[in-house]
Amino acid sequence: LLVVGYFALGLLLPAFLLPTFRKALGLSRYLVTMALLLLMVGVPAKILLRLVFNIKYLLETPWFNI
Predict the structure, then answer these.
(1) Cα 37–43–62 angle (5° rounding)?
(2) DSSP characters over 22-55
(3) For residues 65 and 57, is the Cβ–Cβ distance under 8 A?
(4) Among 28, 51, 32, which residue's Cα sits nearest to residue 40?
């Protein structure tokens, strides 16, 4: 739920705050750019969570751990 919320807010919030940025890129390039940016920001955030709160995995399923 946290991962979905992170990506939902990360995609929708800039679209409403900076509508010219979204219109200049177009929908497909905007989605790709924001997804890559959110993944880049997520790596240091996960490192910080691991160091400060000792959270090892954000998403844990029987098939894989993130």
Answers:
(1) 115
(2) HHHH-HHHHHHHHHHHHHHHHHHHHHHHHHHH--
(3) yes
(4) 32
User: Could you read off the pLDDT of 9-46 as tens digits, one per residue?
Assistant: 999 999 999 889 999 999 999 999 999 999 999 999 99
> Structure pTM?
0.77
Provide the pLDDT for residue 26: 92
Q: Cα–Cα distance between 44 and 46 in angstroms, integer? A: 5
Structure token pair of residue 58: 């954000």
Q: What gap in Å lies between CA 51 and CA 45, rounded to an integer?
A: 10
pLDDT over threshold 80, residue 66: no
39, burial (CB in 10 Å: exposed 0-12, middle 13-18, buried 19+): exposed
